[in-house]
Amino acid sequence: MATTADSLALAAQARRSYVERLLSGVPGVVHAVEDGSRLLATQSAEHGLQYKRRDVAADLRKAAPTWINGIVSALRGALGNGMVAVSRPGDLTPLGRAPSMTLVDDDTIEVEILSSRLALAMMDRASWEFTDLRSRMSSLEQRDELDTHDVLRPHVLARIVTTTWRSSSMSQDAWRTLQAVLHEEFAHFAEEAYHETNRWLIQQRVLPEIDLRPFIRRTRAGGGVPVVSGGAALTGANSVFARSNVGEETRMMTRAGGFARGSDHAEAVLGRLNRLIGRQLPDFAGTAPMQPASAELKNAIAEAQQGIQRRLSAGSGQVGGEVVSTPALMEELHQRKQALKSAATSPVERATIEIVALLFQSILTEERIPAAVRVWFARLQMPVLRVAVSEPDFFATVEHPARRLIDRMGACVMGFDTTSRMVGDTLEKEIKRVVQVVEAYPDTGRRVFQTVLTEFEKFLEHYFKNENEASRRGVSLAQQVELRETLAIQYTIELRKMLNEVPVQEGVREFLFHVWADVMAMTSVKYGVHSAETKTMKRVAADLIWSASAKVSREERAEVIRRLPPLLKTLREGMDHAGVTAEKQDEHIQRLNNSLAAAFTAKTAAIPRERLEELMVKLETLEELLPDAEDVEIDESLVLDLSGHESSELEVVGEGGSMPTPAMLTWARELQVGGWYMLDYRGRNEVVQLAWQGMRRQLTLFVSPHSRGILFQQHRLAAFLQAGLLVPAQDESLTVRATRSALAKLDVDPSRLLN
After folding, report:
1. Domain segments of the chain: what residues?
2. Inter-axis angle of helices 347-364 and 263-280, to 10 degrees?
3. Coil, strand, or helix at residue 686?
4. pLDDT digits (tens, 9 = 90+) for 371-415
5. Considering the domain 643-730 in this protein, what is its CATH number?
6. Which residue among 92, 185, 278, 297 is least crowded, i.e. fewest CB within 10 A of its CB?
């Protein structure tokens, strides 16, 4: 059995192995970024942007040796103890030496933002590998968390990369120009290093049972390249690691990498935040009662809210005709945070102020939130802070209405490409209204957030149904599908009850259940349940039942022959309107003819006239007997084929995907209206938005920007999620992403909670 000393030595060796892999790969990854910059410079773009790309590529070629040396130098410092102190964006300070106190300028804030985004990109790509590695290191070192300066942490590598970029004379603007390339290359770089370190530890028999994922080679699929404005696909020709084509399993896992980030993931992130804070402040607990905020803090929050409203009164982020830049806005919020902390009367209040500020710092630097909407998120910071200091469950559960409101609004405005997709005026006005309502009721806490959340969700339902041009037609068609299928199921249920003890020939019985119930449902949707057309279809059902019962007298047989031509004509018309093909109609009619022939030879049972009359009365009043629509479940056991609803405006997904797990089915039920996704279907890979969900979420409609609807049943939707054919624009909600960003900053400097 390994001793504690052996375990610690193994952990130290793993860190050295990780750093050595980084050191050997740095030249390659920098050269890959160079290749990507040169390729980007060759892509067609607006004249000024094209010149900027060319200049950046030329500058990077000159600065690359200095940048490589800077990264290598910083990493070599971690070979001894695996630690790198990166307490400030501009400093790589030795451990134990406090950085000098200076004013935080815009440049420093910008570097902080770039570093945080790079760290998040790394975690988005390498979260599984990092989680497994952290678990293995924790088991070796017998502690819950890695040190905040541990070189294994993604934010440490991200800070080294961004800091040395600036020290190599490359500008922040140049970084933003190449951001897609930089994020892709360094995220892949980190993932490979984590993967190989995990592989080494498995060989040393350190928690080999954690997962089978480390055995899957982390190479890139041919399509796994970043996409930039204009649709240019980029990749460095000399990437640091091989980019061979991968097997279906790896491709599926890569594309669906975020699928596990449902409610369980969100709660885990929030739990980790609470544990981190609890180590600094034992009195801070998301489930413990909080004392009411002091009068001084309440006044300070009110003053800060009024100041932010004045600063952003136009709702457009403009003051005196000048746009308020994100760094300037962040600096103002930072100053207000300091004033709030001065007014706080306890360490818990100061910690709460800091955490909320970090959450909104992440939200306000999220590039996918359009500028016109970002200002309204900024105005929510003080109302959210007011709730957080008085309601402990804000930090205890992702179900708090303030969090859910931010997530719902964020999901609606954060698509894949904000440069080509503008937020509709109607949606922007509703977000503005929601924020102003929250601001107007400062003392109602979670109740006002719950109220406006409910209103916002009702607005979305109305918006996609009636006001959004891309979705309006699709939602209408999807609702008709749901109504028709629900009625068909209801009619089938009641027909089964009616005919349970009636001697009806089996061929007729099956035709009524499987075909004519749908015909009656279609007619009811088109003309109304009490229309003459629907009554005609119900009378046909009664005539068919009578015609197929035993006919023992000449008069009855003559009556069947007289009724037969108009009956067959109506049967064909009904099936034709329901979308039954001519070939299928012929098959159904042939079976019915066989049933009628059996009736003529008296091989079927006779139905008493009074029983037939009773049956007709029930059919005429069928709608009164139907079960509630909410009690009808549309699933594959009842509706096997929706392809009959296919049209030029509505695609019905009837195949594809892979067998979903229970977790995938749960995730499919958690999807929310308004969210954006990338759908791979019928040879297209396109952005779609979730516009409508039916009762019990058994049907879900997505719409493309070109107004085409794509309808899923729940099981098929889960199958597409499982296979990575439907990938969310956000693999985690806005507040969870912000919480992870706050965790990264608190990992670096936990003392900021108390200062």
Report:
1. 4-139+153-255, 264-467+738-753, 473-631, 643-730
2. 140
3. strand
4. 888 889 989 999 999 999 888 788 888 889 999 999 999 999 887
5. 2.30.30
6. 278
